[in-house]
Write a structure and sequence with these properties.
mainly alpha, globular
Amino acid sequence: MTSETTAALVLPQTPLAQHVLALTLRVESPAVANHSIRSFLFARLFAEHTTAKPDADYDTDLLFAACVLHDIGLSDAANGNQRFEVDGADKAAELLTEQGLGVAAVDSVWEAIALHTSQHIADRRGTLCLLTRNGIALDFGNDTEFISDEVGAAIHARYPRHAMATSLTDIIVEQATARPDKAPPFSPAFTLLRERAAGQRTLLEHAADHGRWGN
């Protein structure tokens, strides 16, 4: 394994990062948790690709929190009556506030999570939102040309996919079926619910199917 590949697998070891990771592994399914961790690894690779520097252009702990907690709204720990993105952002903000982070840092992570399904909007809301959304998109296999086969294979060997897109869709549809307020018109949950009700393979699953990494 090259030094580049080894470095790509390293997770932050700060108390905050360890707390975030422990919660995610405890409350999320393996498919969702692995997707969340891979999203951070890909976000960091994207940052390197775009020459965004840790500490100068973004805070690694905040990027880790935003990526690893971005789907916490799909767990029982944060399944409320709002869109899963907003429920997740609220839960992340609560957690980070309890860990002593300031208002500005908490708000930046809230925004990155709440907007992670909002292409173009998230990309214009600062570096943390941009890196978070692109890390998640890279896990669907979009625009991955700058990632070597070795690095991609190592990430997936450490954090297998487990039919990620189907697992995400299953949970989103289950939540929206039980609580319709979670799927307001034109939201991702609304679209997925309609596609599943029509007996279709969802656009989310198709996106993964046709991406570099598969479902």
